[in-house]
Specification:
Elements lengths: L1 E3 L1 H7 L7 H16 L7 E7 L2 E11 L1 E10 L2 E6 L1
């Protein structure tokens, strides 16, 4: 599962009022594009935001240092495009 806010819909040009299957396919396409040719490297850090403990930043090596966000929702952590 991936959580999207309004900014993520705009950034990735996902159809906001689109059919859920269409949105799911667009998200899957994005992940394939990002991760199919190059796999993430070793984990460097996991930092929980002290002002928002439901938001974490995960840093990893990929040539240089890259990161992504995860959001705690209903007891589970999910990729968060925000």
């Amino acid at each position: 599962m991936v959580l999207l806010n309004d900014a993520a819909y705009r950034r990735f040009n996902f159809p906001k009022q689109g059919d859920p299957v269409t949105v799911r396919n667009e998200i899957a396409r994005l992940f394939r594009q990002v991760y199919s040719n190059v796999k993430p490297g070793p984990l460097v850090s996991v930092r929980i935001n002290p002002r928002d403990p439901t938001l974490a930043s995960i840093a990893y090596r990929h040539v240089d240092l890259d990161s992504f966000n995860m959001r705690l929702f209903d007891g589970q952590w999910y990729y968060a495009f925000e």
